[in-house]
Each structure stands twice: as C-alpha cells, then as structure tokens.
Amino acid sequence: MEKTFLMVKPDGVQRGLIGEIVSRFERKGFQLVGAKLMQIPTSVAEQHYGEHKGKPFYDELVSFITSGPVFAMVWQGENVIATARQMMGATNPKDALPGTIRGDYGVTVGKNIIHGSDSLESAKREISLFFKEEELVEYTRTV
Ligand code: CMP
Questions:
Q1: Tens digit of pLDDT for each residue in 56-83?
Q2: How many angstroms separate the alpha carbon of residue 99 from the centre of ligand 1?
Q3: What is the C-alpha to C-alpha distance for residues 129 and 112, in angstroms, rounded to an integer?
Q4: Does this complex have an ipTM over 0.95?
Q5: N or C: which end of the chain has fewer CB within 10 A?
Q6: Is 52 one of the annotated active-site residues of the chain?
Q7: DSSP per residue, 77-108
C-alpha cells in the first residue's frame, strides 16, 4: 500500500494544529502508521531539503524547520501521496484554496504549516530519513 511522509512544521505545532491536521487525514480514511514529535537535527534538515540547496530561501528553510519541534508522520492508503498534497493545498498559502490545510491556516510561503512528499521516490527517501523501519506499524482497520 502507498505511503507518504507528512510533517506538521514548527509553526503548525506552535499554533496547536497537530490535532486538526491528524483529524483531517483520519476522517478522509487514511491510516496513520508512524508518528513522532521531534526536534530535527540540522544535518537531517539539510538532507531533507537537499534539492533546495543554493536557492535564496535555503538557509531560512533549514533554520525554520529546526527552530522548534515538528510532528513527523507516515500515512498509508490508496493514492495517499497525491491526495495528501491536494488536501494540503498549494505551497504558497496565498494560492491555496479554502478547504485545504494551507488555504485555511497558512499565510506565508515560508511558514506554510505542513510538508508532504511530492512523489513516490521522495516519499521513500523522506520516510527512511525520519523513521526506522521498526517505528512503523502494520495493522488492519477493523471498523
Ligand atoms: P515544503 O513543501 O516544505 O518544501 C520546500 C519549502 O520551501 C516549501 O514547503 C516552502 O515552505 C519553502 N519555500 C518555497 N518557496 C519559498 C520562498 N520563496 N521563500 C521561502 N520559503 C519557500
């Protein structure tokens, strides 16, 4: 089953949005298979955002994502990568539609509440960067 990596960024944690965000993905019907509140080490942030190295906002990006705790998650379900991106809304909250997470709660592109993998390849890379295999669970929904 497809898996994706989602992360409530430091602004989302500070603003008390973990529950709201988890709830949206639960109600949609996706399955939470891993989660942890953590402070990201700079070395991990640099790996996570490696593709943005050299861009004008790179230093700000690394410094912001390591500025406070994040809530890292792995979600599972059919087409979860693309559907989660739709539920998150456009990267820049000014372009994100109402009803999406960034459309409802975000204002600036740097502090845009949530990160989500953009492809199968990045999902695999990001999941293994943040989670050990034994930190993920397998279970069947019974209700
Ligand atoms: P994210 O999905 O975490 O992946 C890369 C992040 O870079 C993105 O969300 C934005 O928060 C951030 N980002 C993209 N463009 C800019 C920008 N112009 N200025 C600051 N941050 C940006």
A1: 999 999 999 999 999 999 999 999 999 9
A2: 20
A3: 21
A4: no
A5: C
A6: no
A7: STTHHHHHHHHH--SSTTTSPBTBHHHHH--S
Residue type, 141: R
Phi and psi, residue 11, nearest 5° = -70, -40
**Identity of residue 94:** K
Distance from residue 61's CA to the centre of ligand 1 (Å): 7
**pLDDT tens per residue across span 11-45:** 999 999 999 999 999 999 999 999 999 999 999 99
Q: Mutate which of 55, 57, 70, 92 to test ligand 1's pocket (most atoms within 8 Å of Cβ)? A: 57
Q: What is the pLDDT of residues 107-142, one digit of tens each?
A: 999 999 999 999 999 999 999 999 999 999 998 877
The DSSP symbol for 39 reads P
